[in-house]
Amino acid sequence: xxxxxxxxxxxxxxxxxxxxxxxxxxxxxxxxxxxxxxxxxxxxxxxxxxxxxxxxxxxxxxxxxxxxxxxxxxxxxxxxxxxxxxxxxxxxxxxxxxxxxxxxxxxxxxxxxxxxxxxxxxxxxxxxxxxxxxxxx
Length: 137
Hints:
Layout: E1 13-22, E2 29-34, E3 39-48, E4 55-61, E5 70-74, E6 83-87, E7 102-111, E8 119-128
Antiparallel strand pairs: 1-8, 2-7, 3-6, 3-8, 4-5, 4-7
C-alpha cells in the first residue's frame, strides 16, 4: 500500500466559547479571548428578539468598537436573534489565523422606545492547530 502525503493544511479541532449578550452592553464589553493561532469559523446567535421602538443591533469585534467580525446585526423582532441564526462575518475577519491572543467584544445599540425584552447567547466557533505538512493518510 502506498502512503500519501496530505497537502491539506488547516484547523483540526473545533472549539466553542458561549457567551451571553445583554441589552445593557451599550459600550464594548470584553467577553472572551481567543488564543493566538486560532481561526474563527462562525458566530451563531440565539435568543429572544429585542422590542426596542425603532432599531436594535449588535456588534461583535476585536476592539471595544465591536464591529470587526459582525456589525449592525438586526436583533429586532423581525431580525436575527429570534431563534437561532448564523451571523455572516465581515470579509477577511473570519477564517484568518489570529497572530496574537485576541479579545472578543460585544455591543448592543437601539433607537426609539427603550426595550424591555431581548437577550442573546453567542456561540463563537473557532479552531486551533494545524494538520502537519507531512501527515500520512
